[in-house]
Amino acid sequence: MAESKNLWGGRFEGKTDPGFADFNNSFRFDRRLFEVDVIASIAYCAALETAAVLRPEEGMQIRTALDTIITTGRQDAAYFNDSAAEDVHSFVEARLVALTGDVGRKLHTGRSRNDQVATDFRLWMRNSIDELDRAGRTLQTSLLDFADAHHEVVIPGYTHLQRAQPVLLAHWSLAYFEMLARDRERLAEVRRRVNILPLGSAALAGTSFPIDREALARTLGFEAVARNSLDAVSDRDFCVEFLSACSLVMVHLSRLAEDIILYATSEFGFFALGDAIATGSSLMPQKKNPDSMELVRGKAGRVFGDLLGLLTTLKGLPLAYNKDMQEDKEAVFDAFDTVKSSLEVTTTVMRNIGVNKDRAQAAASSGYMNATELADYLVRKGVAFREAHEIVGKIVMRAIDLKVELQELSLDEFQKFSSLIEGDVYEALSLESTLSSKSQIGGTARATVDAELKQARKRAR
User: Fold this and answer.
1) pLDDT recorded at residue 18
2) Separation CA 370–CA 134 (nearest Å)
3) What was the pLDDT predicted at 6?
4) Spatial separation of the C-alpha atoms in residues 70 and 263, rounded to whole Å
5) Are 371 and 277 within 8 A, CB to CB?
6) Using only C-alpha atoms, what is the Rg of the chain?
């Protein structure tokens, strides 16, 4: 079959070892670039025609065949079966030659697989970043919906996993919204650097044919052309940046997963996982396991590994292209698949969580989480904060001895530590007062959070 012939065979007389051929073959994973390879080839065909390398009738014949190839590939999964092609470029060229004969062989004029794959990969990544952006936006929306649905709920905020200060559950949701906003910004920045055209750089030295690279860039939607052919074919910075951005997405999803896992335990009891997002135990009938979130948390390490693996591959490579770079695709493809599915599953989880408002509020009202409010109360009475901090620390110790919360202490007990404490202290120590005092931008006061939710809706569009 024509497609089994290597694109580089003229220099060789002997046969390739079958084991090495299989080791060298990338079609099993780079076939994923099929559509973008054909799209780039259609554009390149037009560029060759403009450069008078192809006659108009030849260009038309090639483009018609490429249209047939991409349509067949989209509609017939079996189209790729049993191919002996070394890579996706070989596959497409073999199909093209089968349809057009020797005319199809002219398409590769002035083009190398080196600049071809770099172009394909950038086209694929550009589309993939857009997919991740949409998935991230959907998760942001689900976080806002969750916040709105549980608008009145208060939970404990934690530092060092110790109860610290009460916050609105909506404020908690907005924290993860902000993380995802930064993730989307990073991906957009990566996309800008991805959107540079390598095609026309040939193998490493540039092309000797009068290809209008800037026109080619416009045709394919690139913002600019690569300025150095050596760099263009060997650059994989965009892959590393993509994997880095993906890794941070997974850091944030893993942190969200950890919170959900903790809050759904019997010990916390703030969340109840819906049946759609949990599993059971094969032994213990009472169990409801947060497998959805545990898998997201676990898959973070997988994406980190993709990043570290590619960095290690690239660190010692000389200019220009080296076959080591074939390893970039599986890492990037795996990270994309993992991040996209993790975003989608996390969105499903956020839509299937119940909240125990009473349990959360009880936890937010105990554990001396209004101690800072008492210190701030003393500051407003004229006490220096460090002195107020020390006074309140002693009051907390007294409350612990008496086994009561701060707001349960008598006024006489308070005044043993400071005569400045008066009857209005109880209002200052109430849960609502504790929340409403945090009214500056970024705080957890109800009015502040309401305003942020409105702004977040606009930002998530």
Assistant:
1) 80
2) 40
3) 66
4) 49
5) no
6) 31
| Best CA proximity match to 141, nearest among 444, 354, 343, 356 | 343
Amino acid residing at 359? R
Which residues form the catalytic set? 160, 281
Structure confidence by residue, pLDDT tens digits, 146-177: 999 999 999 999 999 999 999 999 999 999 99
Answer yes or no: is pLDDT of 5 > 90. Answer: no
Phi and psi angles of residue 163, each rounded to the nearest 5 degrees, phi first: -55, 130
Q: What angle do CA 79, 82, 88 make, to 5 degrees?
A: 65
Q: pLDDT for 350-388, tens place per residue?
A: 999 999 999 999 999 999 999 999 999 999 999 999 999
Q: Which of 27, 201, 43 is nearest to 115 (CA)?
A: 201
CA–CA distance, 25 with 40 (Å, rounded to integer) = 22
pLDDT in tens, 258-282: 999 999 999 999 999 998 888 887 7
CA distances from 89 to 108, 214, 243, 304 (A): 10, 23, 24, 29
The position carrying tokens 């970024």 is 442
Alpha-carbon distance 100 to 120, whole Å? 23
Contact between 428 and 372 (Cβ < 8 Å):
no
Identify residue 108 by its one-letter amino acid code. H
- The CA distance from 448 to 440, in Å, is 7
Closest by Cα among 287, 299, 283 to 251:
299
Let me know if 170 is exposed, middle or buried by CB neighbors in 10 A (0-12, 13-18, 19+): buried
Confidence of residue 9 (pLDDT cuts 50, 70, 90): low
Residues 248, 86: Cα–Cα separation, whole Å: 34
pLDDT exceeds 80 at position 435 = yes
